[in-house]
Specification:
The chain is mainly alpha-helical and 106 residues long. It is built from 7 helices and no strands. Helix 3 crosses helix 4.
Amino acid sequence: DDIENWKDTLNKFGLTIGQVVQATPKHRDARERAMYMARCIAESTKLRRLFFKTRKIPIDELLAQVPENMRVSRKTIERQKVYITAVALAMSGDYPSMEIYFEVTE
């Protein structure tokens, strides 16, 4: 089951589903920007490699790749790191049934 596999991957990063639920941004625009940041990590070979190697969001490298109109502050990324990490893991893994939960409108 995709969700069980994702939970196992979250655990490897020291996270639980409960933490992800609590850390989910309440406002739609904040949630969409966080998902966009996660998608940037998942789709970039360089960022994804750094992310899995360090098990942390490569903030400086991420901000350098994000277009100006979608950029957020370092503080925002740090504040939303649990959610961004969870979504990046879901987008990077083989979890086809979860894709509908993480669609980003640009």
